[in-house]
Protein: UDP-glucose 6-dehydrogenase
Amino acid sequence: MKIAMIGTGYVGLVSGTCFAEWGNRVVCVDKNAEKIEQLKQGKLPIYEPGLDKLVERNQIAERLSFTTDLTSAVKGADLIFIAVGTPPRLGSGDADLSFVYMAAQEIAESLEGHPTVVVKSTVPVGTGDVVEKIIAAVRPRGSFSVASNPEFLREGSAIDDFLFPDRVVVGVEGPRALEALTALYSPLARANTPVVVTQRRAAELIKYAANAFLATKITFINELADLCEQVGTDIDDLALGIGLDHRIGQSFLKAGPGYGGSCFPKDTLALLRTAQDYGIALRVVEETVAANEARKRKMALKVIDAVGGDVEGLTIAVLGLTFKPDTDDMRDAPSIPLIETLQRFGAKIRAHDPVGMKNAARVLENVMLLDDPYECVRDADAAVVVTEWESVRQLDLDLMRQLMRSPILVDLRNVFGRGAAQAGFQVSSVGRPA
Ligand code: UGA
Structure:
């Protein structure tokens, strides 16, 4: 099939490349000429394990190409995906759909044949209806369909999530779009991946509901972790004990400093806005958002407690800055409020991240960023693990202990087990007795 992918951000680039991997001819479009030029040379704007090789392979096979020219990409395409950003509007938290609508307008102006326009960006309920109206206003007699096909990719494991998903969700209003999307996803159907075929509005809502549910699950285990600390028991045992019940499930029960990233914080807020518009109170989601925000700042108090109640003038080494491992993404990373709060209380911050330093330098102020984790902890009064990078797990605790001024370790991801105490550290973890 011939596919145009509008937007070469995270979703567009991963989806476009994987569609090409299945043998489709994919043209990825972006307004940013510099980005397109870089992509043509095989330089990716994001860090995602394995993506560079997949892009290269499909470029060489001439199944994947990049352009700024939307008109030529859309010409003759069977499927036109909209995968542009839907950032939160400042203040209100609702999704800014201007890029989606702009893409719809440009698609309409270039439309020919009988394509299916598929919204892949995460968009509030009813956006597909507006996209359809925008295109119909320009092409009243045009022959096209509009579908919703949300993505469920996680940064860091996006390619596997795309090629081996738990399910595919397809929201359609007619047979033509269903036929096109069924053909597109036939490699997955052959592998017995469930395909949920539903209305367009349902597909749009499924995406938000899934993210809000996962955010709630994390928040639940985080709150239970606080209780475990008080009653002197271990959150990982509790998570295992409940998670083995298949109705609960073991994933997303890892306690930590609170969820971050480009999706959960944005999507929970956008879902709340939609509910508000319809006069519905989603109290569980409201509480999740509030509890997670409070938690991220509370983690700074945990550090302050660990050093004896005052960080004024102390040097704190932060290990891991990105919102999770295997990404360079700093959006809504728990490390940001943690560092800002510690700085307000007078701490000096040194920090290390194996991949996210460039983005960290853009969002963090007055932080000494160090490429070497051991240099980062040198002479520190405490070390704080914020992101569970494998390279952080592998650190030599004895060496760290020797380099640091005080042997205080605040492990917000529970990456270090008993070994840390054995190495002489005074350890403070999440959901474990001190
Ligand atoms: C999330 C969803 O998992 C994807 O299914 C979805 O497609 C994506 O958002 C999106 O909407 O685009 P992502 O934000 O990449 O993916 O990362 P997750 O692995 O979900 O982690 C989100 C946050 O939750 C991270 O800060 C992570 O550290 C935290 N988390 C996750 C926990 O604290 N505990 C867990 O058990 C799991």
Summary: The pocket of uridine-5'-diphosphate-glucuronic acid is lined by residues 122, 151-155, 211, 214, 218, 252-254, 256, 259-261, 263-264, 267, 323-324 (CB under 6 Å). The first strand starts at residue 2 and ends at 6. The radius of gyration is 23 Å. The chain has two domains: 2-198, 199-434.
